[in-house]
Design goal:
323 residues, Rossmann fold, 5-stranded parallel β-sheet, 37% helix, 17% strand, binds iron/sulfur cluster
Amino acid sequence: MFKAIALFSGGLDSMLAAELVRRQNIDVLCLTYTTPFFNAQKAQAASRQINLPLEVEDITTTHLKMLKSPRYGYGKNMNPCIDCHTLMLQIAGERMKKSGFDFIITGEVLGQRPMSQNKQSLYVVAKNSGYPDYILRPLSAQLLEPIKAERENLIDRSKLLFIQGRGRKDQIKLAADFGIVKYAPPAGGCLLTDPMFTKRLRDLFSHQEDHDIHDLDLLKYGRHFRADDQGKIIVGRNNSDNENLRELSTDDDIVLFMADFPGPHVVIPHGIIALLPFAAALCVRYSDAPSDSEANVIYQHKKLSNIIKSKSVAKEDCEKWVI
Ligand code: SF4
């Protein structure tokens, strides 16, 4: 029996591509990746639904390296889609060779995304991955050059499809034919396409060369303030931010919260003591404490707790330092 690896985002197109190949009696293993910018949740739900095995691989280190200087640049935000796809295919290709798979499947559809899924981009991505003759796009295969597996009749090209463009009609009909009833809306799920996240990520890259996964995870929550080149302060905006910041903070960070009033969870990553007065003033500003008098703010660092008295920071200072 022939074997294929499906690069599997969990979106409808990736489900259809994998299912189309499985229906030709080919063993399909789904492969999805995680980084601080996207996770495997959608792929996990989708693979369960179509009952295919899924492997999840954390590619943070190689993805970060690529993200800092992508050969083909960024999309509208900080999304280096062409280089990202190339990297994903390259990793899938290495796995294919190592484990004796015959080819790789993707759910890409010709012309669906004007920049990253035109004929030229699909070709460039496949070529740069190092595995151009092994990458099958089942949904558009009949519009593309046949790959080795098609030429050698491992798979019947006549049963592959010729979908192109941005419309979803063909995919929705195929999903119904395959009995796939639940699927996520297209796109979404990658923080590198989010303008606000991108702004914070650019700020982090430009101020802190030695950032780690913790710094990247903290970018997902709260309001972020940059205090000159000293460091940054993060202020929870709501209960969910507060909860997430609480979970993410480590003993190295300084965390602050109000002693006597409801208020935000505030974090100074890497425990920069010089930022304590500003962080306390921000904590008061976004709390229910009166704005014109001092309030008690609890701060914790390296398992020790203390209290600092602070007034609210002026609105202009907030606006000046917010990222
Ligand atoms: S949207 Fe994000 S995950 Fe998808 S190719 Fe672009 S950078 Fe990679």
